[in-house]
Amino acid sequence: MSQSNPAEKSDITLEGRSLTKIYHTGTVDVHALRGVDIQFHEGELVVLLGPSGSGKSTLLNILGGLDSPSNGQVHFRDLEITTGDESILTRYRRDHVGFVFQFYNLIPSLTARENVALVTEIAVDPMDPAEALSLVGLGERVDHFPAQLSGGEQQRVAIARAIAKKPDILLCDEPTGALDSHTGILVLEAIERVNKELGTTTAVITHNTVIGNMADRVLHFGDGQVVNSKRNTSRQPARELSW
Amino acid sequence: MRALNLKLIRNLWKLRGQVLAIAVVIASGVAVLVMSLSALQALQDTAAAYYERQRFADIFTNVKRAPRRLVERITAIPGVRSVDVRIKQVATLSIEDFEEPVIGQLVSIPEQGEPHLNRLVLRSGRLVALGHPDEVVLSEPFAEAHGLQPGDQLKALMNGNQRTLTVVGIALSPEFIYAIGPGALIPDDMRFGVMWMGDEALAAAYDLDGAFNDLSLGLLHGTNPKLVIEHVDRLLERYGSSGAIARKDQISNWFLMNEIEQLKTMSTILPTIFLAVAAFLSNMVLSRLIATDRSEIGLMKAFGYSNWQVGWHYTKLVMAMTSVGILLGWLLGAWLGRVNTEIYADLFRFPLLIFRPDAGVFALGAIVSLIAALAGSLGSVRRAAALPPAEAMLPPAPPMFRKTGLSRSRVAHWLDQPTRIILRQIFRSPIRALLTSFGIALSVAVMVMALQWIDSIEKIVQVYFHDAQRQNMMVGLVETQSDTTLEAFRRMPGVLAVEPMRFVSADLSAGNRSHRGSIEGISSTPELQRVYDASGAVLEVPPDGLILSTKLADKLRVGVGESVWIEVLEDQRPVRKLPVVALFETYMGMPAYMNIDAFNRMMGQRASLEAVNLLVDKSQLSRLYQRLKSIPKVSSVVLKDAAVQEFNDTMGETLMIYISFFAAFAGALGFGVVYNSTRIALSERGRELATLRVLGFHRGEISYILLGEAALLILVGLPLGCFVGHGLGWLMTSAMDSELYRIPLVIKAATDATAVLVTLGATAFSAAVVRRRLDNLDLIAVLKTRE
Predict the structure, then answer these.
(1) Residues near B235 by Cβ (< 8 Å), separated by ≥ 6?
(2) pLDDT tens-digit readout, B259-291
(3) Which of A45, A142, A179, B154 could join A184 in a cystine, given CB atoms 3.0 to 4.6 angstroms apart?
(4) The domain spanning residue B535 has which CATH number?
(5) Cα angle B288-B290-B293, degrees, rounded to a multiple of 5
């Protein structure tokens, strides 16, 4: 299923072409991606749905510069990041990509503000850490250590940390996977707000189909391929979601 | 349980880097212990066997001249098993291609059969034959120093007669393991040598027919030598005896035992330090290692393994790791022990070597290491096993951190986040951090302690040879000479200044404490041999009274103003009570000085001397040597330059071996501490570091967090190590303090710096190894798994 449309080429932020990924584990070859073509447009919120093992996390890792494809290319605007150069990947992650994981991966020895500052200190034109934290509704708890925050709060700190450098792309891998629905919605609201207010191109991986309703576009994954793509006529606000 | 055992083996293999690092540390401790104790035991066994086999005598004495018929009466003394009477004399030797005068110690042996006591070990050739009065047997070190072999000849000035002697054999004797010439500090095989001649030949040469001047006794087992000595002294008093001595005071044996005693000190203090470090390290490493394994422990318990089974599993892991170290340590220690023993045996020229390390030594090393390691891991195993399985399988809650005063201070404003991570990590577990620093400190300290010897020896040489002694030559005389001899020396070629010196054997006592030593008479205004205090002060020599070395004063427990009883053991044997007028500190021996005029008065003699201190013009040395070789009164010639050279060579030889052992061990310690603590930090915090990489941090930047923490701890450890090293140095030098010498504690800045550099090198190496792992951090794998 091709996403290419020359008319939209100008506002494509991130593009993957014919991406394949084969993991060699022992004597078995696992085909995690079997030729994926994908494009993300400026300011778009895309939700990737699919069962576990369908290849969506592998795709996200490759798009985020955490992993390289076995074949195919990834272009961020005019920059090809699949050259295999480790320092280009680091540069790319540092300047353009924000990550949010299922397990928040906060640095336990730093407070919420400092966790965000960790990124703003090395970014080119970041926002103030406090501003990023109030964007995710944590303006009050900036001086708390991770151990003093709930899971939802920790995840929102992680989002604040991801967006504080004003990334071009925000990649979220099961951001609500470890949270109850009420807290999960708070986190999704934060992602939605970042996408709308900052215009950050956003990709969210989940296996919760309900979350697809808040997206511009929903891609269904199966067996290492995009098996279905659906454009929502209107995005449902995150706070109206329920599961 | 078979699956668990498989897991154990695979775990060990997975952790092989750390297993090896721990093993190296444990092995160092065990090896030092095994090396030191086995070498010590081997030396003691070898010396004992050598003495036994060659019938080394139990009591020694010398007289001016006594008739041989006394032997019967001496044999009758209760407790005496065998008696040997001999003639001992010194001769001035001329050896081809060696300009300086050489002093030969002549000792008589029977022309037929073997002596009863102090038997020779013939190394080549044969013993002397009857009817060949010019045959001699040379001691091996002396013969080797001059390249002399059976068949070679040398010239000797014996009792005023120039003789040509023929070497017929080369031998060793238990009596001269340490062959030290009169007035010398350490053996100088170029300038002093022992040679054995036939009884009759020597008696004829020195007009001692039917007489002897040296006596050795072998005692029956269990006999108190003191009682026999009293007997012998009474019997020989009128023959000019200077007092019998027991084997423990015999000069060669005394030096040997001193050496062994020092080795004993080293083999108790050093392995204790090493084992303590090893124990502490394995403790630290193993406890953290098990703490990182908590989810597996939860899993095992979920499957139904009991706490006891889980505990035993980890106990086996710890024992396996420790055993690798113990085994390595055993092998290394046994090998080094053997090498060490051979070095000493070579130094002492033992003709035999008994190296049978006691199994107990090996067991001791193993037990101490095992206990230390198990004690270290026990707490962690118990903590892990105590968790309910469900909780254990969950990732641990984020560790609690607090803001310290530092975070709120102005300084904090300037800190970037990675630096904050480092500081908070340290402040969160200050004890762990401190222990790591301390481990590094111990590595530095051991190195400082080893290297400090070079500085101390340098200081001894400086003070003893250069600061105290203005003379550059000392000549000993065969008997007490009148001061016309002094004038003769003054007129010799190249002599710029002369100063007389007197020696006499004496018992010094105060209260119930006594010391058998000697008293030296020195010029009232000494220009050459000065009374030099180690602090740098030169003491005046008052007309009366004793000047004691502090070590001797301590032994007698007297101070300035108190009195000491002197019982001279020669000539008229005067007994005097003299006041102590001054004390001075010296690193060598336990000298007691008095004004030479007072000395002469005490002895009831006119101006006389037993030795001459000389300041000579070195350009005239050849002529002076020629002259010295031709006069019969000379019993020793000690050239300061040669003595310093010999001293440095001997010390350098043994010290360098010792120091290189410890440099290697210190390096192993430094490497072990840093490698293990960073490696464990990496496994504890791999996720954190991977996250940072994902956030766009470069490899160098995340290395900064992990290695920066290590670097900070090292930075604290280095000066601490120098500090502890000074303490250990003090401990060692204090423990080495003996009647023979004192080691001043001198540690140069360069020594601290070298120790710091060695440790830095070792830690940099381990950091580089860990850095490689950091560079290969698998980002995705780390982030995907929960913990």
Answers:
(1) B70, B73, B74, B77
(2) 888 778 777 777 777 777 766 766 776 676 777
(3) A179
(4) 2.40.40
(5) 115
The DSSP secondary-structure symbol of B620 reads G
Domains of chain A by residue range: 6-240
Same domain, B102 and B249: yes
Sort out which chain A residues have CB atoms less than 8 A from B424's CB and list them.
109-110
Same domain? B607 vs B658: no
Which DSSP symbol is given to B465?
Answer: I
Long-range contacts from B729-735, C-beta under 8 angstroms, 24+ separation? B729/B448, B729/B449, B729/B452, B731/B269, B732/B265, B732/B266, B732/B269, B732/B449, B732/B452, B733/B452, B733/B456, B735/B265, B735/B269
Compute how many other C-beta atoms are within 10 angstroms of the C-beta atom of residue B496.
Answer: 13
**Domain membership flag for residue B119:** yes
Residue B599: domain span: 495-616
pTM above 0.80, yes or no: no
* pLDDT score, position B179: 86
Task: With respect to residue B632, please indicate whether it lies within any of the assigned structural domains.
Answer: no
Beta bridge partners of B612: B475, B500
* Sequence-separated (6 or more) residues with CB below 8 Å from residue B456: B733, B743, B744, B745, B746
Interface test with B, best of A109, A120, A171 (most B CBs within 10 A): A109
Domain count, chain B: 4
Distance CA A222, CA A243 (A): 23
Distance in angstroms (rounded) separating the CA atoms of residues B348 and A222: 84
**B284, B376 Cβ separation under 8 angstroms:** yes
B113 in a domain, yes or no?
A: yes
* CA nearest to A164 within chain B: B695
Name every residue whose Cβ is closer than 8 Å to that of residue B769 and which is 6 or more positions away in sequence.
B17, B675
Q: Say if residue B129 is in the same domain as residue B245.
A: yes
Tell me: ipTM over 0.85: no
Closest CA to A90 of B703, B701, B696: B696
Strands (E), chain A: 12-25, 28-41, 45-49, 71-76, 79-80, 97-100, 169-173, 201-206, 217-222, 225-231
pLDDT at A10: 55
The residues of B whose Cβ lies within 8 A of any Cβ of A are 395, 397-403, 416-418, 420-421, 424-425, 428, 687-688, 691-699, 701, 779-780, 783-784, 786
Tokens of B184: 């010398």
Question: Is domain A6-240 given the CATH code 3.40.50.300 in the classification?
Answer: yes
* Among B255, B277, B298, residue at a domain's last position: B255
Compute the CA torsion angle B77, B80, B82, B88 (nearest 10 deg).
-70
Report the phi/psi class of residue B315: left, alpha or beta, with left for phi > 0 and alpha for psi in -120 to 50: alpha
Query: Residue type at B481?
Result: Q
pLDDT at residue B392, rounded to an integer:
66
- Asked if the structure places residue B333 within a domain, the reply is yes
Nearest to A188 by CA among A123, A243, A126: A243
- B432 to chain A, minimum CA–CA distance in Å? 16
Q: Do residues B766 and B678 touch, judged by C-beta distance below 8 A?
A: yes
Strands A217-222 and A225-231: antiparallel
Using CA coordinates, name the residue in chain A closest to B398: A147
In chain A, residues with a C-beta closer than 8 Å to the C-beta of B694 are 64, 66, 93, 99, 105
Q: Residues in chain B with pLDDT < 50? A: 786-787
Domain boundary among B397, B430, B460: B397
Three-state secondary-structure class, residue B154: strand
Mark whether B33 and B144 lie in a shared domain.
no
| pLDDT at site B346 | 83
N residues, chain B: 787
Q: Is the pLDDT of residue A3 over 50?
A: no
The mean pLDDT value for A216-229 works out to 92
Q: Are residues B42 and B136 in the same domain?
A: no
DSSP state of B516: E
